[in-house]
Amino acid sequence: MRGPRARAVVVWVQAETMQTNDSAGFTTRAVHKARGFAGSTGAVMPPVFLTATFASGNPDGFDYTRSGNPNFRLLEQAVAALEGARYATCFASGVSAMTAVVSTLQAGDVVVAEENLYGCTYRLFERVFAKFGLRVRYVDLAQRSNWGVIGAERPKLVWLESPTNPLLKVVDLAGLSAAGADVGAAVLVDNTFASAYLQRPVELGATLSLSSTTKYINGHSDCLGGVVATNDSVWQERMVFAQKALGLQPSPFDAWLTARGQRTLALRMDRHSATALELARWLETHAGVRAVRYPFLPSHPQYELARRQMKSGSGILTAELECSAAEALAFCRRLRLFTLAESLGGVESLVCHPATMTHASVPAEVRRQVGISDGLVRFSVGIEDVEDLRRDLEAALHA
Ligand SMILES: Cc1ncc(COP(=O)(O)O)c(C=O)c1O
Predict the structure, then answer these.
(1) 187 CA to centre of ligand 1 in angstroms
(2) Residues 170 and 162 sit within 8 Å (Cβ to Cβ)
(3) What is the pLDDT of residue 361?
(4) Annotation marks residue 123 as catalytic
(5) pLDDT reading at 122 higher than 90
(6) 36 in a structural domain
(7) Span 204-237, pLDDT tens digits
(8) Catalytic residue among 29, 215, 238, 378
(9) Domain of residue 342, residue span
(10) How far apart, in Å, are the Cα atoms of 16 and each of 19, 44, 255, 303?
(11) Domain count for the chain
(12) Closest approach atom of ligand 1 to CA 193
């Protein structure tokens, strides 16, 4: 018979050894990676460490939650394993993660960015960091003929998104990572729309893979978060520094929710992708729809690249309706299962009108140039039954 103290140690060791090694499959890693810190209780899932501070000299070396908390350290281990990266740092939101990266730059530095970016990324560059002397060149990087700008500008950072928000352009991550490396630029990929299950930028050569975990990684639309994964120890140190120096850390409870959500990432992504592909094929044949964009439709301009780079097409699709902005919004409001709301990547279906919502912060002129028309509608396809979603779309289009 073991005494209580010995039993506690055995339980602790079991909890620790349940951590998997990196050769385990994606879902095995997702389920088992974020499970430590069970302590002497044998809790199968970690508790939420709702504490601002830690007693000095504790064995795990925690001091103050802004610079480290078990819940976000566990999430960081899990996301690093999913991204196939050595390190990951978690933040309070996707925008906090971007702020951490951009805060490492200096006045006069240049960023070369894909021209179709999430609206708040554009706003962060133009309304916040431009006044500190950052210069951003926006280019259509889906066109290989434009890649020369990387050699010409010699940027500190190349900022990519793929698929892009909201146009779902797909850019060549391996090719652009090599082009960035040639001039010593770090290459960041905003991987929010794909998630690490469908695409792993660091494995394709990118320096940094950034995700808003608010979307697919958490997947339940109940908290915000962001993460930056990398193999580069210098960048990792910069991210950890930004997390505590700028106060960009997530709350322990949000990190706990996100760690819970990521355990089912693979299952959800398979379902999102299958349903979105079926709806995209159907919408493409619908008379009221001018065009449908979805990376795994043969009509997508980068279809072949998407098939090489991504496991499946993800859950976002966009449709261009034959109508004005007011009519497009009215269509969105008629939907019953797709809620008209910002955000994406949750189990529930959402619809968004980028010109008046996510990309309202982008000047109308710039929206027109990059192809965000007034009739463009973005669907985040949830995990509901596909027939119900199709009926909802049909009814709203018919009206
Ligand atoms: C592609 C992309 N990146 C980053 C973000 C920002 O994430 P958050 O809302 O978590 O700050 C979003 C949000 O919609 C996004 O769509």
Answers:
(1) 18
(2) yes
(3) 80
(4) no
(5) yes
(6) no
(7) 999 999 999 999 999 999 999 999 999 999 999 9
(8) 215
(9) 265-398
(10) 6, 11, 19, 43
(11) 2
(12) 1
